[in-house]
């Protein structure tokens, strides 16, 4: 994503002007920014892309919106350039079926946005989710179908209450976690007590480790019988 300025001035290489016939530096920056937005985590976007890479202004703004949890604004901004990117020789190429590469990237970015948004809640109504992320289809069950597809594919860790139209986050087994932590603490206390008891037995048995003995750390017997 960091494209050297010299890329634009290479001129023809082996008879091909890559800056004109393949991709310009700006094109490469757009490709890299969209791929990063579709695949990297928020922290990776900040450290590896936003702070380090040379990006097109609108792509940089989209990444900035995503990393500040303004997901719908990010998607709206990307959608504004969708028509232009569909005309790109690479982004507009078929990715299988009727979907182009830019459509596939947009779908991944949308799924990432929904997942990141939902991670802040224990449950979210589908109507609220649909108002934040308007469905891409006019079907009345579009949001429900999209969520079910994400859950079944493992891209969204949640369960759907179809009757009440609520997306519910998985419940954490707090009781088991608490019991595990208590058991670990008990083991540590037990180990500490055993070490103390061992020290008491050493003293009561007449054995001790002398401190500061010029000859080193030999074992001594109380009363000076053996030192």
TrEMBL record:
PANTHER family: 26S PROTESOME SUBUNIT 6, COP9 SIGNALOSOME COMPLEX SUBUNIT 1. Belongs to the CSN1 family. It is found in: Cytoplasm; Nucleus. Keywords: Cytoplasm, Nucleus, Signalosome. This is COP9 singlesome subunit 1. Pfam families: PCI. The keyword Cytoplasm applies. Residues 1-174 form the PCI domain. One of its GO terms (cellular component) is COP9 signalosome. SMART domains: PINT (SM00088). InterPro entries: PCI_dom (IPR000717), Rpn7/CSN1 (IPR019585), WH_DNA-bd_sf (IPR036390).
């Amino acid at each position: 994503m960091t494209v050297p300025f010299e890329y634009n001035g290479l001129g023809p290489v082996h008879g091909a002007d890559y800056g004109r016939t393949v991709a310009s530096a700006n094109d490469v920056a757009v490709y890299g920014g969209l791929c990063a937005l579709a695949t990297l985590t928020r922290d990776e976007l900040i450290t590896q892309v936003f702070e380090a890479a040379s990006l097109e202004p609108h792509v940089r703004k989209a990444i900035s919106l995503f990393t500040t949890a303004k997901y719908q604004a990010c998607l709206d901004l990307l959608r504004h350039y969708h028509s232009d990117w569909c005309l790109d020789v690479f982004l507009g190429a078929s990715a299988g079926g009727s979907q182009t590469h830019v459509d596939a990237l947009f779908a991944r970015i949308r799924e990432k946005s929904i997942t990141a948004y939902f991670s802040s809640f224990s449950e979210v109504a589908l109507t609220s989710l649909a108002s934040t992320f308007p469905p891409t289809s006019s079907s009345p069950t579009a949001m429900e179908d999209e969520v079910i597809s994400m859950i079944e594919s493992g891209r969204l860790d949640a369960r759907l209450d179809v009757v009440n139209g609520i997306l519910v986050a998985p419940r954490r087994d707090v009781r088991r976690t608490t019991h595990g932590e208590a058991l670990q603490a008990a083991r540590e206390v037990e180990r500490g007590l055993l070490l103390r008891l061992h020290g008491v037995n050493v003293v009561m048995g007449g054995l001790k480790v002398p401190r500061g003995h010029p000859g080193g750390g030999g074992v001594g017997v109380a009363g000076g019988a053996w030192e």
